[in-house]
Amino acid sequence: MMKERRTISFTVLFSLLTIAIAYQEAGNHDDEEEYSFILQKTPEKYLQLSSNGSFKIAVFADLHYGENAWTDWGPIQDVNSDRVMSTILDKETPDFVVYLGDVITANNLPTANASLYWEKAISPTRARGIPWATIFGNHDDASFEWPIEWFSATGIPEYQCPSPTNGDEHCGFRGTHRLELINNEIERNTLSYSIKGPDHLWPSVSNYVLQVSSPENPKQPIAYLYFLDSGGGSYPEVISSAQATWFKHKSEKINPDLRVPEIIFWHIPSKAYKKVAPKFGIHKPCVGSINKEKVAAQQAEMGIMKILGNRSSVKAVFTGHNHGLDWCCPYKKLWLCFARHTGYGGYGNWPRGARIIEITQQPFSIKSWIRMEDGHKHSEVVLSS
Ligand SMILES: *[C@@H]1O[C@H](CO)[C@@H](O)[C@H](O)[C@H]1NC(C)=O
Ligand SMILES: *[C@@H]1O[C@H](CO)[C@@H](O)[C@H](O)[C@H]1NC(C)=O
Ligand SMILES: *[C@@H]1O[C@H](CO)[C@@H](O)[C@H](O)[C@H]1NC(C)=O
């Protein structure tokens, strides 16, 4: 029943000394004065990057922590996901990690506080002192779906609470919303570069930009990393018109002459991914190793792709969601890329791995490849040079 449920839930489903500078909007989105410029908190926030002029990001996609905690196989999946991340972090020693959504499977978490599972998922990165940022996927704040089997003769199982010492409160069925998850992460973690986006984009939450700077001059941007919330879970799977407008204004403001390359992260592929998806295998110009399912795209296109496609500074979009796809294909002047299923949680048994992105300053390039749990590397592609 477990595997079946997981299939069903799917279908409804950055050298350098870098300072991450978050331009966060307060309230309205047009006026320069409305931007509060946050130089991230304390000096500990300054990233001390390798002096060889490169910045490496590991992308952890679709970890799906916390599935079926009441069974034997559920907790083992999480242990396996810990191992995948640890192996890849030790092999690649990235400067930064992006958690690309579906960090947890909330619809499968009979707990009052899903942040406990969220913490588990970020712990391999935190343990190595590597900073990270997270975005939401469609499973992170989904509401608990009571398994019908719990109402048969076998009854409701004695499930394991993530923190049984803290009493009953940690065993509940209340669900944990996006804002709670992000607040808990930010409050407890000085290494977190996640930002709660502007209020007017609610209910979408993970909308923000981080600056990657030159090693010589922290004020000189080398690249911008944009994060967008593609919805799902507590609301439709979409990047709203308001988010598209937010991106347009923000990018035109901080990068008016299109000089600084921009790369974009969100969870659910947009409909444009369907247009470029390779048929039967993977052929040039696409690069990748698995093409095992149809693109499960967002429900609607509300304008973000038009804006991205019209900005020559946008080099690539990275999404997760489809565990059986790991390709990059060109679309207009940019690349649309899938990450690689990293977690043992979630549907599919394709070998686990992580997409790696490397930005090099001189000469400038953005390269990407996939690093597998067994250590081998494949599907290297130059996304910009
Ligand atoms: C830069 O140095 C880091 C570690 O110090 C290493 O992981 C990375 O591969 C190097 N990059 C290049 C392009 O030499
Ligand atoms: C939920 O867990 C997080 C992290 O473990 C903690 O910081 C927070 O206080 C908890 N919230 C509640 C309501 O228990
Ligand atoms: C595309 O960009 C050009 C130049 O920046 C601008 O004039 C044009 O209005 C844009 N088109 C759309 C559809 O945004």
Automatic annotation (TrEMBL):
Residues 55-323 form the Calcineurin-like phosphoesterase domain. SUPFAM superfamilies: Metallo-dependent phosphatases (SSF56300). Gene3D superfamilies: 3.60.21.10. Residues 1-22 form the signal peptide. The keyword Membrane does not apply. GO terms for molecular function: hydrolase activity, acting on ester bonds. This is Calcineurin-like phosphoesterase domain-containing protein. InterPro entries: Calcineurin-like_PHP, Metallo-depent_PP-like, PAP14/16/28/29. Keywords: Signal. It comes from the Eukaryota. It comes from Aquilegia coerulea (Rocky mountain columbine). One of its GO terms (cellular component) is cytoplasm.
